[in-house]
Amino acid sequence: MKTQQFNTTRHMKAQSITAIFLAAIVLVACGPQGDPLDAKKAELDEAKATLAELRQTITTLEGEISAEDPDYFKASNSTIPVTSMPASKTHFEHKIEVRGAVMSRTNVQVGAEMGGKLNRVAVKEGDAVRKGQTLAVFDTEDIQRSIDALTTQLTFANTVFEKRERLWKKNIGTEIQYLESKTNKESLEKQLASLNTQMKKTVVKAPFSGTIEVLPVKVGQVLQAGSPVALLVGNSDMYITTEVSENFVSAFSKGDKVIATIPTLNETFESEIISIGQVINPASRTFTLEVKLPRNANYKTNQVVVLQLTDYVNEEAVVIPSRIIQEDIKGNFVYLIDNNKAKKVHIELGLSYANHTQVVAGLSGGETVVDKGNRAVGDGSVVEVQN
What we know:
By secondary structure, the chain is an alpha+beta fold. Helices cover 30% and strands 37% of the residues. It has three domains: 2-77; 79-105 and 237-387, Efflux pump adaptor protein, beta barrel domain (Elongation Factor Tu (Ef-tu), domain 3); 114-229, CATH 2.40.50.100. The protein has four helices and 23 strands. Strand 20 (348-353) and strand 21 form a beta hairpin. The longest helix has 33 residues, at 36-68. The protein is rod-shaped and about 150 Å long. The protein starts with a helix and ends with a strand.
Protein backbone atom coordinates (compact mmCIF):
# COMPACT_ATOMS: atom_id res chain seq x y z
CA MET A 1 0.00 0.00 0.00
CA LYS A 2 2.86 2.38 0.94
CA THR A 3 4.60 1.62 -2.32
CA GLN A 4 1.45 2.44 -4.28
CA GLN A 5 1.05 5.74 -2.39
CA PHE A 6 4.71 6.57 -3.02
CA ASN A 7 4.42 5.87 -6.76
CA THR A 8 1.22 7.97 -6.92
CA THR A 9 3.01 10.88 -5.17
CA ARG A 10 6.04 10.61 -7.43
CA HIS A 11 3.76 10.57 -10.49
CA MET A 12 1.97 13.71 -9.29
CA LYS A 13 5.33 15.41 -8.66
CA ALA A 14 6.50 14.57 -12.16
CA GLN A 15 3.29 15.98 -13.62
CA SER A 16 3.77 19.15 -11.56
CA ILE A 17 7.35 19.63 -12.84
CA THR A 18 6.20 19.07 -16.43
CA ALA A 19 3.45 21.60 -15.98
CA ILE A 20 5.92 24.18 -14.62
CA PHE A 21 8.23 23.74 -17.65
CA LEU A 22 5.30 24.02 -20.08
CA ALA A 23 4.09 27.17 -18.35
CA ALA A 24 7.57 28.69 -18.61
CA ILE A 25 7.72 27.89 -22.32
CA VAL A 26 4.28 29.39 -22.96
CA LEU A 27 5.18 32.51 -20.97
CA VAL A 28 8.38 33.01 -22.95
CA ALA A 29 6.58 32.45 -26.25
CA CYS A 30 3.77 34.84 -25.36
CA GLY A 31 5.91 37.39 -23.51
CA PRO A 32 6.40 40.98 -24.51
CA GLN A 33 7.86 41.33 -27.96
CA GLY A 34 8.63 45.00 -27.88
CA ASP A 35 11.79 44.86 -25.76
CA PRO A 36 14.12 41.78 -26.07
CA LEU A 37 15.84 42.68 -22.79
CA ASP A 38 12.55 42.60 -20.85
CA ALA A 39 11.82 39.22 -22.40
CA LYS A 40 15.19 37.89 -21.25
CA LYS A 41 14.62 39.21 -17.72
CA ALA A 42 11.21 37.55 -17.57
CA GLU A 43 12.73 34.31 -18.87
CA LEU A 44 15.45 34.47 -16.20
CA ASP A 45 12.89 34.99 -13.43
CA GLU A 46 10.86 32.02 -14.61
CA ALA A 47 13.99 29.85 -14.87
CA LYS A 48 14.99 30.74 -11.30
CA ALA A 49 11.52 29.95 -10.04
CA THR A 50 11.56 26.65 -11.92
CA LEU A 51 15.04 25.78 -10.52
CA ALA A 52 13.89 26.53 -6.96
CA GLU A 53 10.84 24.34 -7.45
CA LEU A 54 13.00 21.54 -8.86
CA ARG A 55 15.42 21.70 -5.92
CA GLN A 56 12.53 21.54 -3.47
CA THR A 57 11.09 18.61 -5.38
CA ILE A 58 14.45 16.79 -5.35
CA THR A 59 14.84 17.33 -1.62
CA THR A 60 11.30 16.07 -0.95
CA LEU A 61 11.77 13.03 -3.18
CA GLU A 62 15.13 12.13 -1.57
CA GLY A 63 13.55 12.27 1.87
CA GLU A 64 10.57 10.15 0.84
CA ILE A 65 12.79 7.61 -0.96
CA SER A 66 15.15 7.33 2.03
CA ALA A 67 12.17 6.66 4.29
CA GLU A 68 10.73 3.99 1.99
CA ASP A 69 14.03 2.46 0.67
CA PRO A 70 17.11 3.12 2.92
CA ASP A 71 19.43 1.07 0.66
CA TYR A 72 18.75 3.20 -2.40
CA PHE A 73 21.63 5.69 -1.77
CA LYS A 74 24.23 3.21 -0.51
CA ALA A 75 25.86 2.95 -3.96
CA SER A 76 26.94 6.60 -3.78
CA ASN A 77 28.86 5.91 -0.54
CA SER A 78 30.83 2.93 -1.86
CA THR A 79 34.63 2.88 -1.57
CA ILE A 80 36.77 4.26 -4.38
CA PRO A 81 39.67 2.05 -5.56
CA VAL A 82 43.02 3.91 -5.62
CA THR A 83 46.74 3.22 -5.53
CA SER A 84 49.12 4.88 -3.11
CA MET A 85 52.75 5.89 -2.86
CA PRO A 86 54.96 7.26 -0.08
CA ALA A 87 56.02 10.91 -0.02
CA SER A 88 59.57 10.00 0.92
CA LYS A 89 62.67 12.14 1.29
CA THR A 90 65.14 11.50 -1.49
CA HIS A 91 67.90 13.02 -3.64
CA PHE A 92 66.53 15.68 -5.98
CA GLU A 93 68.29 17.85 -8.49
CA HIS A 94 67.11 20.40 -11.00
CA LYS A 95 68.77 20.97 -14.36
CA ILE A 96 68.49 23.63 -17.00
CA GLU A 97 69.06 22.94 -20.68
CA VAL A 98 70.94 25.39 -22.90
CA ARG A 99 72.41 25.32 -26.39
CA GLY A 100 76.10 25.80 -26.97
CA ALA A 101 78.63 25.44 -29.75
CA VAL A 102 81.99 23.82 -30.31
CA MET A 103 84.77 26.39 -30.54
CA SER A 104 88.51 26.19 -31.08
CA ARG A 105 91.30 28.39 -29.79
CA THR A 106 93.41 27.07 -32.67
CA ASN A 107 91.14 28.59 -35.27
CA VAL A 108 92.79 31.65 -36.81
CA GLN A 109 93.27 33.63 -39.96
CA VAL A 110 96.97 33.35 -40.76
CA GLY A 111 97.94 36.74 -42.16
CA ALA A 112 100.86 38.26 -44.04
CA GLU A 113 103.31 40.09 -41.78
CA MET A 114 104.51 42.16 -44.71
CA GLY A 115 103.18 43.21 -48.10
CA GLY A 116 104.32 42.04 -51.49
CA LYS A 117 103.68 39.68 -54.37
CA LEU A 118 103.05 36.01 -53.72
CA ASN A 119 105.61 33.86 -55.51
CA ARG A 120 104.37 30.50 -54.21
CA VAL A 121 101.39 28.99 -52.43
CA ALA A 122 102.53 25.72 -50.89
CA VAL A 123 99.16 24.30 -49.74
CA LYS A 124 95.57 23.93 -50.88
CA GLU A 125 92.24 23.88 -49.09
CA GLY A 126 91.70 20.74 -47.04
CA ASP A 127 95.42 20.02 -46.56
CA ALA A 128 96.56 18.90 -43.13
CA VAL A 129 99.65 20.87 -42.11
CA ARG A 130 102.17 20.65 -39.27
CA LYS A 131 103.31 23.46 -37.01
CA GLY A 132 106.03 25.45 -38.80
CA GLN A 133 105.14 24.14 -42.27
CA THR A 134 105.40 26.69 -45.12
CA LEU A 135 102.04 27.91 -46.42
CA ALA A 136 103.10 30.66 -48.85
CA VAL A 137 106.20 32.59 -49.95
CA PHE A 138 106.40 36.26 -51.01
CA ASP A 139 108.73 37.72 -53.61
CA THR A 140 112.14 38.42 -52.01
CA GLU A 141 114.04 40.02 -54.91
CA ASP A 142 114.10 43.60 -53.56
CA ILE A 143 114.97 42.51 -50.03
CA GLN A 144 117.71 40.23 -51.30
CA ARG A 145 119.30 43.08 -53.31
CA SER A 146 119.26 45.28 -50.22
CA ILE A 147 120.82 42.50 -48.16
CA ASP A 148 123.57 42.01 -50.74
CA ALA A 149 124.34 45.75 -50.82
CA LEU A 150 124.40 46.02 -47.02
CA THR A 151 126.58 42.93 -46.75
CA THR A 152 129.18 44.58 -49.02
CA GLN A 153 129.03 47.83 -47.07
CA LEU A 154 129.34 45.98 -43.80
CA THR A 155 132.37 44.08 -45.01
CA PHE A 156 134.13 47.38 -45.86
CA ALA A 157 132.94 48.96 -42.61
CA ASN A 158 134.37 46.04 -40.62
CA THR A 159 137.74 46.43 -42.36
CA VAL A 160 137.84 50.17 -41.61
CA PHE A 161 136.81 49.60 -38.00
CA GLU A 162 139.45 46.92 -37.45
CA LYS A 163 142.20 49.20 -38.78
CA ARG A 164 140.99 52.19 -36.75
CA GLU A 165 140.84 49.97 -33.67
CA ARG A 166 144.43 48.74 -34.11
CA LEU A 167 145.69 52.29 -34.63
CA TRP A 168 143.68 53.56 -31.66
CA LYS A 169 145.24 50.92 -29.43
CA LYS A 170 148.67 52.25 -30.53
CA ASN A 171 147.53 55.80 -29.77
CA ILE A 172 147.52 56.63 -33.47
CA GLY A 173 144.62 58.61 -34.88
CA THR A 174 141.82 60.39 -33.09
CA GLU A 175 139.07 59.01 -30.90
CA ILE A 176 136.47 60.56 -33.20
CA GLN A 177 137.75 58.52 -36.15
CA TYR A 178 137.61 55.34 -34.05
CA LEU A 179 134.07 56.03 -32.80
CA GLU A 180 132.83 56.94 -36.29
CA SER A 181 134.05 53.64 -37.73
CA LYS A 182 132.54 51.69 -34.84
CA THR A 183 129.16 53.46 -35.11
CA ASN A 184 129.05 52.96 -38.88
CA LYS A 185 129.77 49.23 -38.52
CA GLU A 186 127.14 48.75 -35.81
CA SER A 187 124.53 50.70 -37.79
CA LEU A 188 125.08 48.52 -40.85
CA GLU A 189 124.82 45.40 -38.70
CA LYS A 190 121.46 46.52 -37.36
CA GLN A 191 120.19 47.34 -40.86
CA LEU A 192 121.29 43.93 -42.10
CA ALA A 193 119.59 42.20 -39.16
CA SER A 194 116.37 44.07 -39.94
CA LEU A 195 116.49 42.98 -43.56
CA ASN A 196 117.12 39.38 -42.55
CA THR A 197 114.03 39.58 -40.30
CA GLN A 198 112.00 40.91 -43.21
CA MET A 199 113.33 38.07 -45.34
CA LYS A 200 112.03 35.54 -42.80
CA LYS A 201 108.62 37.21 -42.86
CA THR A 202 108.33 36.58 -46.59
CA VAL A 203 107.67 32.95 -45.69
CA VAL A 204 104.23 32.38 -44.09
CA LYS A 205 104.31 29.35 -41.79
CA ALA A 206 101.62 27.47 -39.86
CA PRO A 207 101.59 28.60 -36.20
CA PHE A 208 100.14 25.22 -35.15
CA SER A 209 99.09 21.90 -36.65
CA GLY A 210 95.69 21.81 -38.27
CA THR A 211 93.75 21.88 -41.52
CA ILE A 212 93.61 24.57 -44.19
CA GLU A 213 89.92 25.47 -44.18
CA VAL A 214 90.00 28.49 -46.52
CA LEU A 215 92.75 29.65 -48.87
CA PRO A 216 91.73 33.04 -50.35
CA VAL A 217 95.04 33.82 -52.17
CA LYS A 218 96.68 32.90 -55.47
CA VAL A 219 100.18 33.01 -56.91
CA GLY A 220 101.03 36.45 -58.29
CA GLN A 221 98.56 38.25 -56.05
CA VAL A 222 99.86 41.42 -54.35
CA LEU A 223 98.91 41.62 -50.68
CA GLN A 224 99.11 44.30 -48.03
CA ALA A 225 100.60 43.61 -44.63
CA GLY A 226 97.97 41.91 -42.46
CA SER A 227 96.02 40.47 -45.39
CA PRO A 228 94.65 36.93 -44.71
CA VAL A 229 96.58 34.16 -46.38
CA ALA A 230 94.78 31.08 -44.99
CA LEU A 231 92.16 30.07 -42.41
CA LEU A 232 93.83 27.40 -40.30
CA VAL A 233 91.66 25.24 -38.03
CA GLY A 234 93.12 22.90 -35.43
CA ASN A 235 91.46 20.47 -33.02
CA SER A 236 94.10 20.45 -30.30
CA ASP A 237 92.40 23.05 -28.08
CA MET A 238 88.65 22.79 -28.63
CA TYR A 239 85.95 23.58 -26.08
CA ILE A 240 82.20 24.23 -25.74
CA THR A 241 80.86 27.72 -25.13
CA THR A 242 77.34 28.76 -24.14
CA GLU A 243 75.43 31.77 -22.84
CA VAL A 244 73.45 31.44 -19.59
CA SER A 245 70.89 33.84 -18.13
CA GLU A 246 72.14 36.11 -15.34
CA ASN A 247 69.43 34.56 -13.13
CA PHE A 248 71.87 31.66 -12.67
CA VAL A 249 74.93 33.80 -11.98
CA SER A 250 75.53 32.16 -8.58
CA ALA A 251 74.29 28.67 -9.48
CA PHE A 252 77.44 27.28 -11.09
CA SER A 253 81.09 26.86 -10.14
CA LYS A 254 84.22 25.84 -11.98
CA GLY A 255 84.45 22.05 -11.99
CA ASP A 256 80.67 21.42 -11.87
CA LYS A 257 79.58 18.38 -13.87
CA VAL A 258 77.76 18.89 -17.17
CA ILE A 259 75.92 16.47 -19.47
CA ALA A 260 76.68 17.36 -23.10
CA THR A 261 74.91 16.01 -26.18
CA ILE A 262 76.00 16.55 -29.78
CA PRO A 263 72.83 15.80 -31.80
CA THR A 264 74.54 15.50 -35.18
CA LEU A 265 76.81 12.75 -33.85
CA ASN A 266 74.16 11.20 -31.57
CA GLU A 267 76.76 11.37 -28.81
CA THR A 268 76.30 12.15 -25.10
CA PHE A 269 79.09 12.48 -22.57
CA GLU A 270 79.82 13.92 -19.14
CA SER A 271 82.11 16.93 -18.90
CA GLU A 272 82.79 19.84 -16.56
CA ILE A 273 82.79 23.63 -16.45
CA ILE A 274 86.29 25.01 -17.07
CA SER A 275 85.58 28.73 -17.14
CA ILE A 276 82.86 31.15 -15.99
CA GLY A 277 82.62 34.62 -17.53
CA GLN A 278 82.79 37.60 -15.19
CA VAL A 279 80.90 40.00 -17.47
CA ILE A 280 77.14 40.22 -18.08
CA ASN A 281 76.22 40.97 -21.70
CA PRO A 282 74.10 44.15 -21.44
CA ALA A 283 72.07 43.26 -24.53
CA SER A 284 71.16 39.62 -23.75
CA ARG A 285 71.63 39.71 -19.94
CA THR A 286 73.70 36.53 -20.13
CA PHE A 287 77.18 35.43 -19.13
CA THR A 288 79.54 32.95 -20.79
CA LEU A 289 80.32 29.41 -19.66
CA GLU A 290 83.05 27.25 -21.16
CA VAL A 291 82.84 23.46 -20.93
CA LYS A 292 85.65 20.98 -21.50
CA LEU A 293 85.49 19.04 -24.77
CA PRO A 294 87.38 15.74 -25.19
CA ARG A 295 89.59 15.36 -28.22
CA ASN A 296 87.80 13.83 -31.17
CA ALA A 297 88.56 14.21 -34.85
CA ASN A 298 84.82 14.30 -35.62
CA TYR A 299 84.16 17.51 -33.69
CA LYS A 300 83.78 20.57 -35.87
CA THR A 301 83.94 24.26 -35.02
CA ASN A 302 80.45 25.81 -34.53
CA GLN A 303 78.87 22.35 -34.10
CA VAL A 304 75.69 22.58 -31.96
CA VAL A 305 75.82 21.10 -28.45
CA VAL A 306 72.95 20.71 -25.95
CA LEU A 307 74.08 21.14 -22.34
CA GLN A 308 72.33 20.07 -19.14
CA LEU A 309 73.55 22.11 -16.16
CA THR A 310 72.59 21.27 -12.57
CA ASP A 311 71.56 24.47 -10.79
CA TYR A 312 69.95 22.96 -7.64
CA VAL A 313 70.62 19.86 -5.50
CA ASN A 314 68.88 18.67 -2.31
CA GLU A 315 69.76 15.34 -0.73
CA GLU A 316 66.65 15.21 1.51
CA ALA A 317 63.87 16.68 -0.58
CA VAL A 318 60.24 15.56 -0.33
CA VAL A 319 59.49 14.65 -3.95
CA ILE A 320 56.25 13.46 -5.57
CA PRO A 321 55.21 12.85 -9.20
CA SER A 322 54.02 16.06 -10.84
CA ARG A 323 50.97 14.28 -12.29
CA ILE A 324 49.26 13.78 -8.90
CA ILE A 325 49.34 17.48 -8.01
CA GLN A 326 45.96 19.22 -8.34
CA GLU A 327 44.92 22.83 -7.96
CA ASP A 328 41.91 24.64 -6.53
CA ILE A 329 41.11 28.21 -5.57
CA LYS A 330 43.41 27.97 -2.52
CA GLY A 331 46.38 26.58 -4.42
CA ASN A 332 48.00 23.20 -5.05
CA PHE A 333 46.96 20.09 -3.15
CA VAL A 334 47.22 16.31 -2.96
CA TYR A 335 45.17 13.65 -1.21
CA LEU A 336 46.64 11.65 1.67
CA ILE A 337 45.23 8.35 2.92
CA ASP A 338 44.15 8.63 6.56
CA ASN A 339 42.20 5.71 8.09
CA ASN A 340 41.02 4.52 4.67
CA LYS A 341 39.77 7.99 3.80
CA ALA A 342 41.11 10.61 1.41
CA LYS A 343 42.34 13.73 3.15
CA LYS A 344 42.92 16.90 1.15
CA VAL A 345 46.21 18.64 2.00
CA HIS A 346 47.40 21.88 0.43
CA ILE A 347 51.10 22.02 -0.38
CA GLU A 348 53.72 24.53 -1.45
CA LEU A 349 55.79 23.52 -4.46
CA GLY A 350 59.46 23.98 -5.24
CA LEU A 351 61.26 23.16 -8.48
CA SER A 352 60.14 20.51 -10.96
CA TYR A 353 62.34 18.31 -13.12
CA ALA A 354 61.87 15.05 -15.03
CA ASN A 355 58.13 14.87 -14.16
CA HIS A 356 58.80 15.14 -10.42
CA THR A 357 58.25 18.13 -8.12
CA GLN A 358 59.75 19.05 -4.76
CA VAL A 359 57.27 19.83 -1.97
CA VAL A 360 58.70 22.53 0.30
CA ALA A 361 55.70 22.83 2.66
CA GLY A 362 52.65 20.74 3.52
CA LEU A 363 54.42 17.36 3.54
CA SER A 364 57.25 16.35 5.85
CA GLY A 365 58.03 12.97 4.31
CA GLY A 366 56.62 9.57 5.16
CA GLU A 367 52.98 10.35 4.32
CA THR A 368 50.97 8.02 2.08
CA VAL A 369 49.69 9.89 -0.97
CA VAL A 370 46.87 8.88 -3.31
CA ASP A 371 48.39 8.09 -6.71
CA LYS A 372 46.14 6.57 -9.36
CA GLY A 373 42.53 7.45 -8.83
CA ASN A 374 43.33 10.80 -7.23
CA ARG A 375 41.01 12.59 -9.66
CA ALA A 376 38.03 10.45 -8.58
CA VAL A 377 38.23 11.08 -4.84
CA GLY A 378 37.21 14.03 -2.71
CA ASP A 379 38.03 15.16 0.80
CA GLY A 380 36.66 12.45 3.11
CA SER A 381 36.04 9.87 0.39
CA VAL A 382 36.34 6.25 1.55
CA VAL A 383 39.10 4.63 -0.47
CA GLU A 384 40.37 1.11 -0.99
CA VAL A 385 44.13 0.86 -1.71
CA GLN A 386 44.80 -1.61 -4.51
CA ASN A 387 48.55 -1.32 -5.09
